[in-house]
Amino acid sequence: MIVPYGNVLLLAIILFLLGAVCSISRRNLLMILIGVEIMLNAAGLAFVAASLKWRLLDGQAFVLFIFAVAASEVAVGLALIVYSQRRTGSLNADQYNQMKG
Amino acid sequence: MTLYAVTFYVLAAIVVLSTLLAIIQRQVIHAVVYLIVSFFATGLLFYLLGAPFLAALEVIIYAGAIMVLFLFIVMTVRAESGEDKGEIYQWLPAVILGIISLFVGGVLIFEIPGSKTGLSTGMATPSAFGQFLFKNYWFPVEIASFLLLIGLVGALYLGRRESRKGSEDRR
To answer: Is B7 helix (H, G, I), strand (E, B) or coil?
Structure first.
């Protein structure tokens, strides 16, 4: 026996909320994207623990798809960040108010 | 308390502490380096929970590729342009909501049946995992590869240098 199943889920919840707090409270676009990465990682941890609990490999397959989604998301997200930094000259999310009349 | 449990708690402490240190850093580059530590420890947790192939992928993709990509972008864009001032009205509501959600989630987790049962050790070998994946999930694998291709094309399109027409009225 390693640990009770609830402890792993609690760790995943803590990690997910850390990522969510980072993503909500920061203004830097890079930190917002980092928060999203932390949240995806926490979801993967919960999937692996569930896969071990029920002795099914489906959870690990889903973690593989989470990896694929995270990789493509970070590629497009970083390209968007570089693009908007080139256009506005800032990474601060508060300064993207060009549509204000 | 077995050796597995001690390993789990040490790794969990490393993960939570390094993630917490990462999200409170002012400089993005420090946050990225702390997150590399966090993802290494998460990879070891995957190994402990019986997924050695995913542990290798976690180190290769997350700690290797994604974080190095973040490092490159942090070095490329100007560092001072995304300054967080860190006012209290900005992070205090998020922290309060996070603590409430953690409390509710913890109560919910330990109320459901089966959460007290211990996880016994197991190991899915990479060959068994690969056979399972391509036997049951071959179509989602193709979709995932297509998603990666679309991400590549989108990143190339967004990241191209504006050379010819339309470059004057953009800025």
So the answer is: helix
For chain A, residues with pLDDT lower than 50 are none
Q: Which residues, numbered 18 to 57 in chain A, qualify as contacts with chain B under a Cβ-Cβ cut-off of 8 Å?
A: 18-22, 24-31, 33-35, 37-38, 41, 44-45, 48-49, 51-53, 55, 57
User: What are A97's strand-pairing partners?
Assistant: none
Token output for B129 = 């995992």
Q: What is d(CA A47, CA A69) in angstroms, rounded to the nearest whole number?
A: 15
Give the integer Cα–Cα distance in Å for B158 and A10: 39
Are B125 and B52 spatial neighbours (Cβ–Cβ below 8 Å)? yes
- How would you class A17 by CB atoms within 10 Å of its CB: exposed for 0-12, middle for 13-18, buried for 19 or more? buried
Chain B residues whose beta carbon lies within 8 Å of the beta carbon of residue A76 = 151, 154-155, 158
CATH number of A28-89: 1.10.287.3510
Query: Taking the CB of residue B84, how many other CB atoms lie within 10 A of it?
Result: 19
DSSP string, B139-169: HHHHHHHHHHHHHHHHHHHHHS---STTSST
Task: Give the length of chain A.
Answer: 101
Q: Fill in the DSSP letter of residue B60.
A: I
| pTM of full prediction above 0.95 | no
Q: How far is CA B47 from CA A63, B2, B80, B124, in A?
A: 13, 17, 39, 10
Give me the residues of A, 52-91, that contact B with CB < 8 A: 52-53, 55, 57-58, 60-61, 63-65, 67-76, 78-83, 85, 87, 89-91
- Report d(CA B23, CA B28) in Å as an integer: 9
**pLDDT per residue as tens digits for the range B30-80:** 999 999 999 999 999 999 999 999 999 999 999 999 999 999 988 888 755
